[in-house]
Design goal:
Elements: H1 6-17, E1 31-36, H2 42-53, E2 57-62, H3 74-83, E3 88-93, H4 98-105, E4 109-115, H5 121-135, E5 147-151, H6 158-169, E6 173-177, E7 193-195, H7 198-201, E8 207-210, H8 228-235, H9 239-242, E9 250-252, H10 265-268, H11 275-295
Parallel strand pairs: 1-2, 1-3, 3-4, 5-6, 5-8, 6-7, 8-9
């Protein structure tokens, strides 16, 4: 998403909005391979649904079921799969730049389904489409005047990086909020602002996007800088804190989420929550992306 022109972002969102009008045979006879070398539920399943809706065959491959577990490089695995006649690779890796590495190694279409802490571009499109529908901005995808808070473990989040890029490209203002170790001021170089006081912010924004604390990406840290209890008290979207959102404000989460930590179950399941709407927007967005990458590149 970083560096993508606003008109290109809007074109992809418009194609996602109109994905239901596709015939269902746009990728008939084509094969899409999901190469997921990191765990996934929503993204992997929605890419499968999207490819099947377009009439494509789908191959699913993970690290444990591939020769990557035997020491083969991701690039060599990608070349091997491409040689079987695959038309597109949907790639998720633990390493930043993994999708770009694959794209350099093959000639077929490559879609980044998340690479380390770097980016998750299709999730940003999912979130933008969801927010546009909720706020009545689906016609032109003009987010001017909207203010969105991204709260939590921003520094570890590829979703946050892609969302900062897409939301600001569409005209929204983005503020990242969390403990200094999770939301350092260096993030402002991406085009957002940073704060550490959610309570001062919660009543001013049009949407709050909560993020999961990515404990697996903090495995090398000597010790956590904030306890789970302190995090919930200061940055969790509790029922009480959600009650202070302004009228018409929404709560989002890309998932998976930890109930009772970054978001209370009552909030996740409540009337302000867009979480399941985000899930529902996954297949149309990924349908549009696959169609664009394979048929219209």
């Amino acid at each position: 998403m970083q560096g993508l022109a606003p008109e290109r972002v809007r074109a992809l969102l418009a194609a996602s909005r109109d994905a239901s009008a596709l015939r269902g045979d746009e990728l008939r006879g084509r094969t899409v391979a999901n190469l997921f070398f990191e765990d996934s539920t929503r993204t992997r399943a929605s890419f499968t649904v999207a490819a099947q809706r377009l009439g494509a065959h789908v191959i699913d491959l993970g690290a444990k079921g591939s020769s990557v577990s035997k020491g083969e490089s991701i690039a060599d695995t990608a070349r091997t799969i491409e040689a079987m006649g695959v038309d597109a690779l949907v790639v998720r890796t633990r390493e930043a730049g993994g999708a770009a590495l694959v794209a350099d190694a093959v000639s077929c279409a490559v879609v980044n389904a998340g690479d380390g802490r770097h980016e998750h571009p299709t999730q940003a499109l999912v979130d933008a489409l969801t927010l546009a529908r909720a706020t009545g901005r689906e016609s032109g995808f003009d987010f001017s005047g909207l203010r969105v808070a991204i709260v939590g473990d921003v520094v570890s989040s590829r979703v946050a990086r892609s969302n900062i890029a897409s939301l600001t490209a569409l005209g929204a203002g983005v503020v990242c909020c969390g403990p200094p170790s999770m939301a350092p001021t260096a993030l402002e170089s991406l085009g957002c602002t940073v704060c550490t006081d959610l309570d001062a912010l919660v009543g001013e924004v049009d949407a709050v996007m909560c993020l999961r604390i990515q404990f697996e990406r903090h495995a090398d840290a000597a010790a956590p800088t904030v306890s789970a209890r302190e995090y919930r008290e200061r940055f969790g979207m509790t029922t009480e804190r959600a009650g202070r959102l302004k009228d018409g404000a929404w709560v989002m989460h890309p998932g998976p989420f930890n109930r009772g930590l970054e978001i209370d179950g009552e909030v996740a399941d409540g009337g302000r929550s867009l979480i399941l709407r985000q899930v529902a927007c996954g297949p149309p967005v990924r349908t549009a992306v696959l169609d664009a990458c394979i048929n219209k590149s």
